Amino acid sequence: MSIIETGPVPIEEPASGLTDGWGMRVHLLPGQGTFLLGNEAVGLSDPSIEISVSTNCSNDAVELGLIAIADLQDGNYGYINPTKSEIPVQQWEQIRLAYDSPALSIVPALQVVLPENAEVSSATVYFDRLEIKPLKILYKNPITMKVDTTFDTVNESLDGINPNAYLPQETAVGDVSLTDGMNGKGIQLQITPDQLAARIVMESNMPGTARDDTRRILHQPERRRKWEPSFCHYGWRAKYRLFTQNEPPSN
Fold it and tell me: What is the pTM of this model?
């Protein structure tokens, strides 16, 4: 079981205000992980927020998760999970998540895992300055998608929505199929207990933005760079049907 404690944390120069030298420490052995969930919801004045946390890791074998949960009952959430070269090692950096919440409150959460096959004997992760603030939009260019986000023109081959893309090879994945939706077609995602995930991946037409693509996913995340805000929407629990209206969702 991982060890969680508060106390002194390293201060490397330049820390640029990312820590005051006192924060949270999580110590892990291979095969251990921890999930830290806020004990109450945080009210929002605006549903579009940026959630960030200062992070410093002893090595890059760990996997991190920064999560904003909008509804603990139906599973609406946004998340980012840096790994490998995205991990800040022996230096402070800020992990940031841009999230358009469907509710005027969220519950923040952090997840830390040291995989069982990690080539290190242990790892320590330091956290400080978890912040939630309104998202400042620096530009107002709309993000257009390469695929019809109403799904009405998606064919039986599921071209453009990339079913189960970016999942590990040689793993059992769920079923992605077309179904009846609101005023047209919808997407149905189904998994069984022995399957890892079911999801679709949709790419945007605007390279060079903070995120080169916007994704709708179920359960497992795609790797994202920690220094770029990640525009996440919602995750749906297994066997829920995902329907869209005729208008594409705003980003």
Answer: 0.65
